[in-house]
Specification:
alpha/beta
């Protein structure tokens, strides 16, 4: 299976790259972390491609390179994203556009280029990474919650459109995950409080999200779904 993962050098992206590379050909797409990409290439034997996929031409080039080398894409995981905590009144135009570019536009450009190849083969799977806050919304994260909610709408609509072509589209909504993205914004006290609010009384790991992606990649009668990986948080 040929697996393409965006945001591949992040905590969740790295976990998915490691898991899928055990059995599949993995192509990781990343924007900045050259050191992390080199480690993954050496450890997993995967192909890492550096590209700014918020740029349409760059996103299209990445897919074209992959198709030329492998001839197909079986699984596309749209994982690229950023987070930011700010009062709504403090969000700048730049903050808003950056959030939408990385979370939504990049997903749109990559998916739009990949889908015709899946339709041609009448086969394929797309998994989009959203967030629990895309389902329920989060105070001081209006732009983040909006982007993640958009991913959910994109998933549900595209699943209906591509189902007749044999292509499944699903979404994962992680809860509180032990990752630099959260640790950079939340204090130890904040993380402990969130842990106590989680019925399983623990914080999730990037590997938990990777396992959910593996399940969705295998689940042949599941499409248009939002799988919460949140320890019962909601």
């Amino acid at each position: 299976m040929v697996v393409v993962i965006t945001g591949a050098t992040g905590a969740i992206g790295s976990a998915m790259t490691r898991l899928f590379s055990r059995t599949d050909d993995v192509i990781g797409i990343y924007a900045k972390n050259d050191q992390g990409a080199a480690i993954l290439e050496k450890e997993c034997g995967c192909l890492m491609i550096k590209a700014d996929i918020t740029d349409k031409k760059s996103a299209e080039m990445v897919i074209d390179v992959i198709i030329k080398k492998y001839g197909k894409i079986d699984l596309l995981i749209n994982n690229a994203g950023i987070s930011q905590i700010k009062l709504f009144t403090d969000i700048t135009d730049e903050d808003w556009h950056n959030m939408m570019n990385i979370s939504l536009n990049a997903m749109f450009y990559i998916t739009k280029r990949a889908v015709p190849y899946m339709i041609k083969r009448q086969s394929g799977c797309i998994i989009n990474i959203s967030s629990v806050w895309g389902v329920h919304g989060a105070s001081c994260e209006v732009h983040y919650s909006t982007a993640k909610a958009g991913i959910i709408g994109f998933t549900k609509a595209l699943a209906k459109e591509l189902g007749p072509s044999g292509i499944r589209v699903n979404c994962i909504a992680p809860g509180v995950i032990d990752s630099p993205m959260n640790n950079n914004h939340l204090s130890e006290k904040d993380m402990e409080e969130l842990k106590q609010q989680t019925p399983l009384q623990k914080i999730g790991t990037p590997e938990d999200v990777a396992q959910a992606a593996k399940y969705l990649s295998d689940a042949q009668f599941v499409t248009g779904q939002v799988l919460g990986v949140d320890g019962g948080f909601y």
